[in-house]
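Re: How this chain folds, sequence and tokenised backbone to follow
Notation: Tokens come from a learned vocabulary of local backbone shapes, not from coordinates.
Start of record: The labelled sequence and token lines come straight after this line.
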Amino acid sequence: MIRTFDRLSLPLLRGLPAELAHSLAIRSLALLPLPPACADDARLAVRAFGLDFPNPVGMAAGFDKNAEAGAALLRLGFGFAEVGTVTPKPQPGNPRPRLFRLPADGAIINRMGFNNDGAARVLQRLSARPAQGIIGVNIGANKDAPDRIADYVSLIRTFAPVARYFTVNISSPNTPDLRRLQQSALLDELLARVIEARDQLGTTPVLLKIAPDLTLAELDDITRVARSRRIDGMVISNTTIARSPALRDRHASEEGGLSGRPLSDLANRTLAETFVRVEGAFPLIGVGGINCGVCALTRIRCGASLVQLYSALVYRGLGLVGDIKRHLVNKLAQSGTALSDIVGVDAAALTAEPWPQL
């Protein structure tokens, strides 16, 4: 069924403006009468953040911004889905056009600006259609918020009854000065207040999503603060503002965050650097440029317990999820190892190599 959907939908969606195609894809998934997902091979099961994932392949934040299709994504075979980014108040985002395909590079550039329906509407959707599976909520601050940290705290309190985990997004390049929250003093205050709010309401895991555009000194500070505040995990990484002269598509000079295939090596390296600094204190999710089973396995060997997709689905379709899972099962069967045995096995060696050029 998924292959048929891809064969029929991908040519149509590629012929439409990128943001219109995205909206149509969300509506289609929300309306399709999908059967429950087939059971995953037991070798793909992952225990992380105190949660049991049926497989390690998740949908990244940014696709289902308003929690309209989370349950459908789980039925399509994802091991988990992350909705959002959600802000306390509804937000229109940046002016259009703000989403650009770079097919020659297998990439996407976006400057969406946290466009979403706001916390109240998203909460209503998640409460009305609870999914049988793991749906995380990616949270961010409103562009005009006088106290951005207070926005994150309010979202923890709002979504604690329905979120299986939270991702604190301080790394989008499309909200002015948001990445300042990655600075150690501000990050320490943010995580202290967020964890305090979480602890008052329960034990929902709190993850931190960072940018790939960090110096190693900045990464040292971030991981030190994250460990001292005892967060539950990190997501590595968001989109990049860097641009390689090797990019070929006519949209390569557009402002915004670049995702997709060109980000892969940088995301691998940032993940490996984070893995060696975390020293097993908490698990990591790898995201950015994963477009095949080999890429997913590489990301796991660089330190990811779980991986997330988004941009590659634009070019490869939803069948990619099954392709990745089959590749992982085959490699595990051939080696006779468990998924947990290979997490981070290549991380230290990778950190000794020259820094990747985007």
Summary: The mean pLDDT is 93. The CA atoms of residues 293 and 325 lie 7 Å apart. The longest strand covers residues 80-86. The chain has twelve helices and 13 strands.
